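Annotated sample (chain length 100).
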Amino acid sequence: MKLGRVVGTVVSTRKDEGIDGLRMMLVRDLTFEFALQDAFVVAIDSVGAGVGEVVLYASGSSARQTPVTNNRPVDAVIMAIVDTVEVEGTVRYHKATEGA
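Output written by the structure step:
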C-alpha cells in the first residue's frame, strides 16, 4: 500500500466494459514529508475520495480484491481516505488541520 494525494479525475467515454461505472482518479505518490512526487497512477476509487485528499491505495493484484474491483481489469484502487498519520508519537498529517 502507498500514500498518495488525489490530484484529478480521469474521464473516458469509451472503455472496456469491465470498468464501466467505475470512477477513475489521478493519484500522485507522496514523500515521507507529504510532498508530491513525480510518480502517479490512475486508480479506481472505491471509497468516494475527492480531489485534494490524502489516500491509501493498492496496486497490482491487490487492487482487484475490493468489492468494487473484484475480477475487474484494474491495477490500482483507492481503498482508504487518510485522516491522520502519526510517526513515533508525532502527528505528521491530520486531515482536519491541513491547510489551516
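Annotation: Strands lie at 2-10, 24-30, 36-45, 54-59, 76-81, 84-87, 90-94.
Annotation: The mean pLDDT is 93.
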